[in-house]
Structures are given as C-alpha cells and as structure tokens.
Design goal:
single chain; about 140 residues; about 15% strand
Length: about 140
C-alpha cells in the first residue's frame, strides 16, 4: 500500500497513531497501517498503548477486531477506520498546501524565509501556524483528542 507521507505526517501532528490488526491476530502500533494488516484504525496517540494492552489481555476471549473495539470502548476512545482518517487528513493537508502556495505568491513566504533563515524551517513554521487556524486541521485534530 502506498501512502502520502505528508498525509501520514498530518495525522501524527494531529496527535493520532495507527493500530493495525495483523493477519495472525496480533496488534501493531505505528505511524501507518502495517503491511500485514487486515484492518487499521487511528486513535489518540496518548491512549493507544492503553487500548492495545487491554485488547491484548482480552484476546483469548474472541476475535481481535472485537477485542480492540471493546478495549477502546472501555477506555472511552473512538477508533477511526483508516480510510476515513486518511481521507480527512488528505483533505486537510490539501487545504494547507493551497495556503502555502498562496503565501509563496503574495510574498509572505519570502519574509518567513528571511526570519527563519531556511526554506524548510519557514515552510514548517507556516504549516504549523496554518494548522492552528485551519478548520479542516482542527477537525482532524479534534477526532484524536
């Protein structure tokens, strides 16, 4: 599976992490769905370990998908299916990309480059600032808090 790194980075910046259910029934936690996954969900990074540990403790009682959902419910965490989370982050990242292009065209980026002393630092600063004010980015971040 190919994933856009910017979109995955956007999910991480929003405070999300991915929990994959592997073919053998184990769980994997990471910044993207595992290659051997049969299903993947995004949830708040700060709660992921707790949810996965609880699901692992219950695994003998049934199938991994049900155990992960049950563990998340017990922890008060909403699991967002990978396809939905990825689509939301992709849409939000596109809004940020358009805003960066606008900043380049109207001269704001040149000012930031002068302040930050490098293009990469200037672009990162601009994206962070835009994420704080972007409704789309706030929606993605809200899903993982």
């Amino acid at each position: 599976m190919g994933y856009n790194r910017a979109v995955l980075a956007h999910l991480a910046e929003a405070g999300a992490t991915c929990v994959s259910i592997l073919r053998d029934g184990r769980f994997a936690v990471g910044t993207r769905p595992d290659r051997d996954s049969i299903a993947a969900f995004w949830l708040p990074a700060v709660r992921a370990d707790m949810v996965v540990e609880k699901a692992r403790a219950m695994i003998r009682r049934g199938d991994p998908m049900r155990m992960l959902r049950e563990a998340a419910a017990q922890c008060g965490v909403v699991l967002v299916p990978h396809e939905r989370a990825y689509r939301m982050a992709k849409d939000s990242a596109a809004v940020l990309d358009r805003a960066v292009e606008l900043a380049k065209s109207d001269g704001r980026m040149a000012k930031l480059i002068a302040e930050q002393r490098s293009y990469a630092a200037a672009e990162m600063k601009l994206r962070q600032t835009l994420m704080l004010g972007s409704v789309a980015s706030q929606m993605v971040a809200r899903a993982f808090r």
